[in-house]
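Lab notebook, bench 4. The sequencing result for the construct came back, and we need a structural model before the next group meeting so we can plan mutations. Quick request posted to the team channel:

Model the 3D structure of this chain.
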Amino acid sequence: MLDTSELTAAVERFADRLRAAPQSRLQRGAAEEGLALARELAVRSQRVETPGAEPRVIPDAGVFAVADQLAVAGTDLAEALRTAPSPSPERELDEAVRLVREALERSGL
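Done. Here's the predicted structure in token form:
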């Protein structure tokens, strides 16, 4: 079975930093970066779980909700990759971890 702990750890690290960030930092782009990542991870999860279906978009619920949205989207993707029959889950997992790390760096947190 695929080990997704690296993805969940990276997502939780970013989510924790978003939770700890002051409102001014969130409003200067950190929350926007987190929401964009949450949306991307959610789309990837939905593509694994229901290929061919139109992905639903995570709504913008405000800067204080982004950390939880990111945590849920990341956990959903990790579970989807771990359990769904995907042609190359390792590659998808590695790419997701890379996306999280890059988004965290861009966020400035």
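Helices lie at 5-20, 23-49, 66-83, 89-107.
Will bring this to the meeting.
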